[in-house]
Amino acid sequence: MRTATILSALPLLALTTAQATLIDGSIDGPIVPGTTGKLGNATITQDNPLGVTYSAVLPDSNTTGIRGYVAGTSNSNGTGVVFNINLYGFPSEALGPFLYHIHSQPVPSSGDCSGTLAHLDPTERGETPPCDPTQPEECQVGDLAGKHGNITLTPFQTTYLELYTTTLDGPGAFFGNRSLVIHSSNTTRLTCANFTLQAGSVVPNQTDPTTTATTATTTTTAAAVAAGPVKTQVPYTGAAVAQFISAGVLVAAGMAFLL
Length: 259
Description:
By secondary structure, this protein is an alpha+beta fold. 20% of the residues lie in helices and 21% in strands. A hairpin with a 2-residue loop joins strand 1 and strand 2. The chain is globular, with a radius of gyration of 21 Å.
């Protein structure tokens, strides 16, 4: 009976090991359908201000040849954001496919990409299990690669409608005061850039065409962007590593007892 019990525990140990690829302090693993954030699923954004574009232009760097930009413009009907991506100069394909995300904090003045902290994640969904692109509402808001595909070509050029980010300053899904980070396949941060306002106003769409809205100036908006996000996200702490080790210890202890 002990042998049968031990054998029945082996799949659990195998599953734990299969999910043990530690990436930026998290445990990677298979996609698990129905993964919802602690605060629920992401919601489709409405009333994005017309004509507003935030773009992140990658800087010149001696450490990488990756260049280009990611720009997000309010959809013409106010629902979601249209992203236009043009990236090139990626290193060896052996480091790919490459990933790109919106991170919760802007790039610090030092240019250190680790200062951008974690992905934009207002629903507190977390990075694991990986995003299921067929259920984008259950993904992290900032996980653009997870929802729309990794970077597999250079140059990488694509345009798509992203329904869960917003150009309206205020909601947690607002990306205008955040940053773009490019990763290798093992999530090493290769380069990063801040999103900045390019054009337009920052007022909601008006349902009454006779209503005159007060338009904020670009200078005012730029200052607001520089101030950084209102809510500070929790940085990577490596806590998931400790959780994984604890799980492994429990499984090993259980097997030792059975023996």
